C-alpha cells in the first residue's frame, strides 16, 4: 500500500507510522529522517536544504519533493510506503501525484488522525524532558515521575522545552490549519481519506487505523 499519514502535532503520527509500517511491511518515510539523512550524507539536496536552514529560511518545496522522490525510488519502497510529514501542503501533494502518475502508480489511502485541539495542547504542553537524556520523557498527566521534577531513570532534572509551551503549540497548530490541513480536502476530492480518532491507547489507535486501511485496500483491489 502507498499511504500518506496526516494529523496535527501531538496526534501521535510518528508512533502510529512506526507500528503501521511494521504491520504492513512497508518503509516508514518521514520528512525529519529524509532531511537528516541527506544532510549527514552530504547529498546535493542535503546541501541545498542546509543552506536554507542555516540562513533561517524555509526549505523550498522542490527540495523536499526531490528528497521524497529519491527515497521512494529505493528498492524497499517498490511495493509501497508510508509517508509521514510529506506532503505538507497542497503544492507538495500535487507534486506527489504527478510523481506517482509518471511511474504509473497512485496512492491507496490518506489516513487522517483526528485529535481535538485542546487535547493536542494538553499532550504537548504537559511533556517534561530529562536534561541528562532527552529520551527520558514524562508527562504531568499521563506519565508522572515518582518525584516531581526528577527523572525516574537517572535522577536528572525534568524541564519543559520551549517548543512545548502552550503558546508555541497553538502557533504550530495555526500553521497546521493554514498549510497542511487543506491537503485533507484535496485528497477527499479523490476519495482517499480515512479519518480516525487518535484518542485512546496506542494499540487502540493502531487497530482503528489498520481496519480503515484494510477497507481502503479492499476498495483499491
Describe this structure in words.
The model has no long low-confidence stretch (mean pLDDT about 95). The chain has a 5-stranded parallel β-sheet with strand order 2-3-1-4-8, with helices on both faces. Strands 6-5-7 form a 3-stranded antiparallel β-sheet. Helix 2 (about 30-40) crosses helix 3, helix 2 (about 30-40) packs across helix 4 (about 60-70) and helix 4 (about 60-70) runs parallel beside helix 5 (about 90-100). With about 220 residues, the chain is α/β, with parallel strands linked by helices. It has one domain: Rossmann fold, CATH 3.40.50. The chain contains 9 helices and 8 strands.
Provide tags for this entry.
221 residues; alpha/beta; Rossmann fold; five-stranded parallel beta sheet; three-stranded antiparallel beta sheet; 9 helices; globular; Adenylate_kinase_lid-dom
- The quaternary organization reads as single chain
**What is the CATH class?**
Alpha Beta
What is the global morphology?
A: globular
CATH architectural label? 3-Layer(aba) Sandwich
Radius of gyration: 18 Å
User: Looking at CATH, which topology would you report?
Assistant: Rossmann fold
Q: Please identify the structural class as seen in this structure.
A: alpha/beta
Detail the poorly predicted runs. none
- Strand proportion: 5-15%
Number of helices: 9
Main sheet summary: 5 strands, parallel
Approximately how much helix is present in the residues?
A: 40-55%
**What string gives the helices and strands in order?**
EHEHHHEHEHEEEHHEH
Give the termini distance in whole angstroms: 11 Å
CATH superfamily: P-loop containing nucleotide triphosphate hydrolases
Q: Tell me the strand order in the biggest sheet.
A: 2-3-1-4-8
Number of strands: 8
Mean pLDDT: 93
Query: What is the number of domains?
Result: 1
